[in-house]
């Protein structure tokens, strides 16, 4: 049995939340705005460790995942502490990676995301902050969603609506390239967040 607190304690960061060192049984698989995510090697588990200034999010996210535990669209969680969550490791590609690798995202995939979000809404949540990096397509083509900390916010989030609109009006057209460079996608995301695309405003 893993000693998860010991693994968390092995993670050293500097004052700017730059990762310095960690236990060799951990493999870094993601860095977000508020946390590192590691795969626990030789297992099907991941551990999300929040930056010191964002440890308060742990409790909020655990509470939301607990609401979603019966859903097939979200990872199960197995243990948590003051600054970490142990959950399923999700094999596959984020929608962002699908775009950079040329893996096609179909309307069926979008419908499955809609089903997942409806599940969350029917559970009393308000799915928010839905973007290309927190939607996964697994090897068999099914959908998983992560990063649910904002699912209790009260304001309306238009990101998923706008992504679906862009898929229908642009991406799905035969002439549109299905493989795109990271720089292009990151630049597009920056412009979108600034509200500089008239018909796609945050």
UniProtKB/TrEMBL annotation:
One of its GO terms (molecular function) is kinase activity. Keywords: Kinase, Transferase. It comes from the Bacteria. SUPFAM superfamilies: Protein kinase-like (PK-like). This is Protein kinase family protein. It comes from Sporosarcina aquimarina.
